[in-house]
Amino acid sequence: LFFVYNIQKDSVEAAGMVTHGQGSPKPEIEFSNVPGSYCTSRGKYKIGKSYQGRFGLAYKLYGLDETNDKAFERFVVLHSHDCVPEVETDPMDICQSQGCQTVAPAFLQKLKTYLDPSGKPILMEIF
Q1: Distance, CA of 28 to CA of 7 (rounded, Å)
Q2: What is the pTM of this model?
Q3: In this predicted model, what pLDDT tens digit does every residue of 97-115 receive, in sequence order?
Q4: What is the mean pLDDT of the segment spanning 31-53?
Q5: In sequence order, which ranges of the chain are alpha helices (DSSP H)?
Q6: Which residues contact 44 (CB under 8 A, 6 or more apart)?
Q7: Mapping DSSP to helix (H, G, I), strand (E, B) and coil, where does residue 16 land?
Q8: Peptide bond into 91 cis (omega under 30)
Q9: Would you call 34 helix, strand, or coil by DSSP?
Q10: DSSP-assigned states of every residue in 41-69
Q11: End-to-end CA, the chain
Q12: How far apart are CA 106 and CA 86, in angstroms?
């Protein structure tokens, strides 16, 4: 799950489904920072400016750790896709990304209300 956490209020303000990178065809999730791996990379990210990309609204991501410092080079971004459901689908799987943090379109619009007006960097952590 993707959580919006307010440090000042010590509370979760929003939550939504998020995909993992497809990586290699293994049953367990594989994490990698290697270009071309199509894996999710663990670590802290700075969420950058929005832009219109292949899937519409997207936000550039800058990896801040050794485990994700190639995120920008790998074109790993935060975006939405219709294949990501609004609610959990357990036991059914959801789609996978090529390493991007991909959420449902409506959830990205909710995230936009936090990201766009912020005058300070917003951090994201994947663990």
Answers
A1: 31
A2: 0.90
A3: 999 999 999 999 999 999 9
A4: 95
A5: 105-115
A6: 63, 64, 65, 68, 123, 124, 125
A7: strand
A8: yes
A9: coil
A10: --EEEEEEEEEEETTEEEEEEEE-STTTT
A11: 11
A12: 8
CB 83 within 8 A of CB 58: no
What pLDDT, on a 0 to 100 scale, did the predictor assign at position 25? 65
Mean pLDDT within 109-124: 94
User: What SS3 state is found at 105?
Assistant: helix
Chain centre distance of CA 72 = 13
The neighbour count for residue 73, using CB atoms within 10 Å, is 10
Q: Which residues contact 84 (CB under 8 A, 6 or more apart)?
A: 17, 18, 19, 94, 95, 102, 103, 104, 107
Question: What's the number of CA atoms in the CB half-sphere (13 Å) around residue 20?
Answer: 17
Summarised one tens digit per residue, pLDDT across range 58-99 is 999 999 999 999 999 999 999 999 999 988 877 777 888 999
**Other beta carbons within 10 Å of 68:** 25
- The two counts, helices (H) then strands (E), for the chain are 1, 7
Assign 106 to helix, strand or coil.
helix
